[in-house]
Amino acid sequence: MSLDDLRTQPLIATERFALRPLRKSDAGLIEHYAGDERVARMTSSIPHPFPPGAAEAFVDRAMSGDTEELIWAIDGTESGSSELKGVIALKHLDRNQSEVGYWVAPPFWNTGLASEAVQALIDANPLGDETMFASVFQDNAASARVLTHCGFRYLGDAETFSVARNASVATWTYSRKL
Question: Which of 148, 19, 12, 8 is nearest to 92 (CA)?
Fold first, then answer.
């Protein structure tokens, strides 16, 4: 798959929200939610404290098309909800494989939103993947349940560096054949 193929990012609609490409106006809510230590600590790449300009740089990178990652906002405006409930991404790997990553804003935790967003991405399969992978920190059982609920199977243990924790953190790795 070429980078040109990744630049065509589809809108993925569900009954409760749409997965849509990021836009400049998302930076404020991304900064607000990603700046929450509870969110940052459950990701490998979000720093805490969240530095000024980081949200704008993240949105600019997502919009540039110069990346092997597609990033969507979880947008609830069509159903009368928040414009940004979280973010979900699909990073292209080799051999028709991708890695799923996501975070959901705390006001929307325990609502089934993450499971629905992951399932919508699986159903759309915008990169034509044969397999999707995902990893979660072992102290994030809620995200592990999201993955197993969406048909991911446990592969094994590993560890990943967390910028917010400034430490390597034990992870569980999962895969889903499509």
Answer: 8
